[in-house]
Amino acid sequence: MIRKNPSGDLPVVAQSAFVDPTAILCGKVFVGENVFIGPYAVIRADEVDASGGMEPIIIGDNSNIQDGVVIHSKSGARVEIGENTSIAHRSIVHGPCKVGRNVFIGFNTVLFNCEVGDGSVVRHNSVVEACKVPANFYVPSTSHVNSDEDLARIEPVTADASSFSEDVAQTNVRLVQGYKKIQNEL
Predict the structure, then answer these.
(1) What confidence score (pLDDT) does residue 35 get?
(2) 80 burial level (CB within 10 Å; 0-12, 13-18, 19+)
(3) Low-confidence residues of the chain, pLDDT below 50?
(4) DSSP labels for the chain?
(5) pLDDT value for 80
(6) Looking at the 3D structure of the chain, how many domains does it have?
(7) Which of 109, 137, 167, 185 is deepest in the core (most CB within 10 A)?
(8) Pick from 76, 107, 106: which is nearest to 94 by CA?
């Protein structure tokens, strides 16, 4: 469902993107080319800051927002998901937040008030908040990262993890193409 927010902003979705009919996009949301937005995802840009302003939620080209993902922002802060990025099932991205290009965010992960650098992998059931994860970092499953000390214990992304991330992104681009072909069928 595509709908306006109370400020009157309506999502802008690229023609080549696929938004599952059960997903909800509300407000100042921009969805790029070949993006896949899965069942029951909620992307909601509807809160304003103290002066009544609102930054957008931006989903970059060739990215995928999988089943049950929630993307929202506090007080009109910006959320940006880079190109070729995968946000896996039931994750929460709560702004302010910036997720770089070619990033993989694993199942049930929570990102809040943080930045995740290009090429990074944050595995399943992790929490990243109030910090800046540099490019090409690998955050293991069930990690809680919220300081430079936490980041000092993190390893660089391995070739296997990077390859997995690329495969997930490409698989979802192919899904977009398949769903676009059948979207008007009953």
Answers:
(1) 97
(2) buried
(3) none
(4) -EE--TT----EE-TT-EE-TT-EEEESEEE-TT-EE-TT-EEEE----TTS--PPEEE-TT-EE-TT-EEEEGGG--EEE-TT-EE-TT-EEEEEEEE-TT-EE-TT-EEEEEEE-TT-EE-TT-EEESSEEPTTEEE-TT-EE-SHHHHHTPEEPPHHHHHHHHHHHHHHHHHHHHHHHHTT--
(5) 98
(6) 1
(7) 109
(8) 76
What is the C-alpha separation between 19 and 84, in angstroms, rounded? 16
- pLDDT at site 186: 53
What number of other Cβ atoms are within 10 A of residue 73's Cβ? 25
For residues 95 and 78, the answer to whether their CB atoms sit within 8 Å is yes
Which of the residues are catalytic? 47
Domain that holds residue 8: 2-182
How many Å is the maximal CA-CA distance in the chain? 53
**pLDDT on residue 160:** 78
CATH number, residue 126: 2.160.10.10
Two structure tokens written together for 82: 């880079």
pLDDT of residue 94: 96
